[in-house]
Design brief:
Elements: E1 4-11, E2 16-17, E3 22-31, E4 37-42, E5 50-51, E6 54-58, E7 65-72, E8 77-79, E9 83-87
Parallel strand pairs: 2-9
Antiparallel strand pairs: 1-3, 3-6, 4-5, 4-7, 7-8, 7-9
């Protein structure tokens, strides 16, 4: 079953976080089989910020950007819609 329905959620909700506070991003998959690999990307960069279904960041001014989760099972891959994070 190809990966589908990749979604991204944030704590605090809406991705609005005060500088220095903890931002937790979580990635979920509606469908997909096999071992899933997660990677996190900011601003369209190919270099992953982290791996796994959760990403925790203590944010600074430079962290305001779009974030995406990419999921692969070795055969197929899918990305979440981008989430815009605003550092207050």
């Amino acid at each position: 079953i190809p990966i589908s329905g990749v979604s991204l959620s944030a704590q605090p909700p809406g991705g609005r976080v005060a500088r220095g506070d903890l931002l937790v991003l979580s990635c979920a998959v509606a469908a997909g089989t096999g071992p899933l690999s997660f990677s996190w990307h900011r601003g369209g960069s190919a270099v992953p910020l982290g791996t796994g279904p959760r990403l925790e960041l203590h944010v600074g001014d430079e962290d305001s950007d779009h974030y995406q989760c990419r999921v692969t099972d070795g055969d197929s891959a899918a990305e979440s819609p981008p989430l815009h994070v605003t550092v207050l």
